[in-house]
Protein: Glycerophosphodiester phosphodiesterase family protein
Organism: Aquibacillus rhizosphaerae
Amino acid sequence: VENQPVPSMVDQPKIIAHRGANDRFNESTLTAYEIAAKDGVDSLEIDLRLTKDNSLVAIHDQSVDRTTDGAGKVIDFTLEEIQKFSTVAVFGNNTHKEEIPTLEDILEKFVDTEHYYIETRLVDGRLVMEEQLVQLLNEYGLIEKGLVTIQSFSEESLNKITELAPEVPLTLLFKKGQFDLSRAKQVEFPYIGIETTDVTRKVVNELHKQGKEVHVYFNNRDTEKSEQKRVKALLVDGYFTNDITYTKELFKQ
Ligand code: G3P
Ligand code: CA
């Protein structure tokens, strides 16, 4: 058992705003991304879903139920229909409302002033986002400027991205409790995304020895701060943070 952390090539870990500054505004909205950008994060994390009429929208869940005043699956609405709903979230005494943005709304707002960390997924087992996504990123010149990382739980989706845009760095995500170290070491992708409770010293050291970066996400807000501190000692390379202020403080020089 190794007791020493094995560093990677990275000097400073990446601070990735998970769904924007979701602790201060409705997750995955333009305002949440704007707050994160003003905070000076390294990257804006965006989950993609497809509407019935093939628009890429920024929303995490399969349905709009948890985050908006509507109900139903994203794939069952047209863009026009889905944008009639408001995301709704309560912060202290204030209820904030804002529409679900398309990916293009976000790119149009920040263009090349931000780095985007975009999550793709299969839709009913099919590869239907990737071509449109790469085309859109190219329209904004973001791939050639190195301003995009793409992440997915689906290797198939990442392989498709490699085919379309080999220069984009990719992150293979593992679900909480399903991390597979030998698989993670084998794959070609340079970054591995792991839920914090699966992150051990051995995992980080072995991936670093393979030249891979470890990017950590946090499913439990109640333990996130202590987990961020714990994995800092292991020298992980990226934080999908739900609390930008805290993560920035943790890495203040
Ligand atoms: O993308 C990293 C992390 O966001 C993966 O989990 O469910 O929050 O998208 P999830
Ligand atoms: Ca995500």
The pocket of SN-glycerol-3-phosphate (ligand 1) is lined by residues 18, 45, 47, 60, 119, 151, 173, 193, 217, 240 (CB under 6 Å). Residues 31 and 125 are 32 Å apart (CA to CA). The radius of gyration is 18 Å.
